[in-house]
Amino acid sequence: GAVVSQHPSWVICKSGTSVKIECRSLDFQATTMFWYRQFPKQSLMLMATSNEGSKATYEQGVEKDKFLINHASLTLSTLTVTSAHPEDSSFYICSARAAGGPYEQYFGPGTRLTVT
Amino acid sequence: AQSVTQLDSQVPVFEEAPVELRCNYSSSVSVYLFWYVQYPNQGLQLLLKYLSGSTLVKGINGFEAEFNKSQTSFHLRKPSVHISDTAEYFCAVIPRVGFKTIFGAGTRLFVKA
């Protein structure tokens, strides 16, 4: 089946530093990838949608200069949290939709970010 | 615009009992419907989906859901739950003319021994 991986699964970083999270579709090509943020006991909040080779589309209220998204290939998208602050601590989940395939999204296992 | 309402934030149930997790949606256009499950500290896994055809959809782990267009509902059911079914369940819709998934707030299913 379609598998999406994320790396790292958890990361701790100091306030003011940047951290990069990778999202890979392992056995299919993903023309569209999504990045979500999830707070404890809450639903997923869509941050941005990225299409391979083009700029990401950010949701209202999401700072594009803080959350840099790059979708460099059909199997890789990255989210970089720049100048991280403790309030950026969260669970970040990516998902991917296959090119021309079914409508469901395949989700990565998530990345737990803790900013100290 | 679309919205998804999961009517119960938490559902406690005893092992081997039946369970129904309720989901209603609102949309001015036709939608595709999905149920996902999330185990602690993990991503989401697709349980089942309704795209077209038969309104009764069977998914993994013994779950099924029924699409009711007149009531705009897509309730998830399982006749006999296990401890391992304890998780967060999300109902979601995608408009047929769009691609953005709209998630409900989630329902925490807690199966007790």
Order of helices and strands of chain B: EEEEEEEEEEEE
* Estimated radius of gyration of chain B: 13 Å
**Helix-and-strand structural type of chain B:** mainly beta
Proportion of residues in β-strands of chain B: over 45%
Strand content of chain A: over 45%
Helix run count of chain B: 0
Bulk shape of chain A: globular
Structural class of chain A: mainly beta
Structural Rg of chain A: 13 Å
Question: Can you walk me through this structure?
Answer:
The complex is a heterodimer of chains A (116) and B (113). Chain A has no helices and eleven strands. Chain A is mainly beta and 116 residues long. In chain A, strands 2, 4, 5, 6, 9, 10 and 11 form a seven-stranded mixed beta sheet that branches. In chain A, strands 1-3-8-7 form a four-stranded antiparallel beta sheet, with no helix packed on it. The model of chain B has no long low-confidence stretch (mean pLDDT 93). Chain B has no helices and twelve strands. Chain B is mostly beta strands and 113 residues long. Chains A and B meet through strand 5, strand 9 and strand 10 of A and strand 5 and strand 6 of B.
Descriptive keywords:
heterodimer; A: 116 residues; mainly beta; seven-stranded mixed sheet; four-stranded antiparallel sheet; 0% helix; 54% strand; B: 113 residues; six-stranded mixed sheet
What's the helix and strand layout?
The complex is a heterodimer of chains A (116) and B (113).
Chain A: E1 4-7, E2 10-13, E3 19-25, E4 30-38, E5 44-51, E6 57-58, E7 67-73, E8 76-81, E9 90-98, E10 106-107, E11 111-115
Chain B: E1 3-6, E2 10-14, E3 19-21, E4 23-26, E5 31-38, E6 44-50, E7 56-58, E8 64-68, E9 73-78, E10 87-95, E11 102-103, E12 107-112
Parallel strand pairs in B: 2-12
Antiparallel strand pairs in B: 1-4, 3-9, 5-6, 5-10, 7-8, 8-9, 10-11, 10-12
